[in-house]
Amino acid sequence: MKKKIIKYAAIMGVGVLLACLALLLVCNSVVTSYATGRVFDDIDSIRPTEVGLLLGTTPQTRIGGRKNMFFQYRIDAAVALYNAGKIKFLLISGDENSLDGVNEVECMRDSLIARGVPSNVIYLDGKGFRTLDSVVRALKLYGISRFVIISQKFHNERAIYLAEHLDLDVDGVQAFNATSPKSAMSMMTYAREYFARVKVFLDILVDKQPEVMDDKPFLGTPSVQNRNEREEFWRDMNSIRAHNEQDTIIGNFTGHGIDTLYVEAVKNKDNDEQQFRFFMASTNPSIPEVELYGFDAVFPRLVNEGDLDGNGTCEVGYLHTWMNSQWREYRIFSLLSGEWRYLLSEHLRTSEWFRQTGIEVAEPGKKKGTVLVHYSRDMFEVKDTLVVPSFNKITD
User: Fold this and answer.
1) Which residues have CB under 8 Å from 5's CB, separation 6+?
2) Are strands 89-93 and 51-55 parallel, antiparallel or unpaired?
3) How many of the other CB atoms lie within 10 Å of CB of 161?
């Protein structure tokens, strides 16, 4: 009798073990399959959006206090997204007082700033104690329905599943995969993920809610209540600090006296997504119009550049305005025989960092007929080049 009981207990134990193993595998498979087409390794596959949701972790491992490569690789991924113009803000969500007393979100913020990400585009959510908290708070508290989750692939897959199955107002959530560490210690994290995926389904089943839901300030995402603050941010992002940008400018653009140029917004009948088309027009009928690039929330503005090439007429500059991407084309026009032409065709692509330095894009060269251009291709490095005007025809 005793042997039979032991036998039955052993069979039941094996059965329970197999059932648990099957549950782990099924939950893992469902989460992984659902995330297909939503998580990406290639940065070019990410659709530009406003916010990157960076999931927190500590800079050192909790066991052994070693450098945490999960942390390092997430920082790398966030910096890459921001520099590529895929996101405009970073919301770091993590534990502000983790088990070892480390503030995850502040450590991540400091690392991002050290890598060149401006502090004014970084927001901290120190109540993201779990992945569920991070996702729900981003959607319900911050009102962000469209964002890019930034973490390792396994973590992103779980976050995507939560975002889509917690009865939230989700619109186009995607994820960018940070590099996954391959050390022996990291295997513990990957093993623990199987159990975390089972808990995903339990949390959804019992309608688990975040531990804390408090008020947070405006994040910079579109909302009617914060229209003025949003437009102020967009204007700052689409300006060059060293320039006197105006809707209307006056100057000697023809060589025959003072004229007025202004930005004209015309209803766009060809494109439903862009309400207006923009033109540089003049009160002088002999000065032709030229189309400008911009978007509805921030109209392009003009800059009287003065006589850059020393031929006796003033050039006109303007910055292409847009809703995302840190990179902007600065264009300089010169009126040549009654036709607007590009004074220069190179070195005028500007980064957001460069636009905030207070450095001019172009100045007259010491030698007549040359233009001194300041530009930056890398963060924190400004270069100069002396250019002879090309006067290329405007074909774009």
Assistant:
1) none
2) parallel
3) 24
Q: What amino acid is encoded at 172 in this protein? A: G
Binned at pLDDT 50, 70 and 90, residue 336 comes out as very high
* Cα torsion angle, 211, 213, 219, 223, sign: positive
Query: What is the distance between the alpha carbons of residues 76 and 13, in angstroms, rounded to a whole number?
Result: 45
Q: How much is the average pLDDT of 48-62?
A: 87
Confirm if 102 and 57 have CB atoms less than 8 A apart.
no
123: β partners = 91
Compute how many other C-beta atoms are within 10 angstroms of the C-beta atom of residue 70. Answer: 21
Residues 6+ apart with CB under 8 A from 142: 91, 125, 216, 219, 221
**Does the model's pTM come out above 0.70?**
no
Residues 6+ apart with CB under 8 A from 282: 253, 259, 260, 261, 262, 289
CB-neighbour burial class of residue 232 (10 A; exposed 0-12, middle 13-18, buried 19+): exposed
Closest CA to 150 of 206, 91, 105, 95: 91
Q: Which residues pair with 392 in a beta bridge?
A: 342
Our CA angle for 55, 136, 60, nearest 5°, is 20
Is the per-residue pLDDT at 357 higher than 70? yes
What's the alpha-carbon Rg for the chain, to the nearest Å?
28
329 within 8 A of 307, measured Cβ to Cβ: no
Side-chain half-sphere CA neighbours of 235 within 13 A: 10
Asked if 236 and 229 touch (Cβ cutoff 8 Å), the reply is no
| Per-residue pLDDT, 134 | 87
Output the CA–CA distances (angstroms, integers) from residue 233 to 11, 29, 145, 206, 298, in the order listed: 66, 42, 20, 40, 10
Q: Which fold has domain 2-221?
A: Rossmann fold (3.40.50)
Encoded tokens for 176: 């960018």
The pLDDT of residue 142 is 74
**Nearest 5 degrees, angle CA 20-CA 25-CA 26?**
95
Q: How far is CA 215 from the centre of its chain?
A: 24
The structural domains of the chain, with segments of one domain joined by +, span 2-221, 229-393
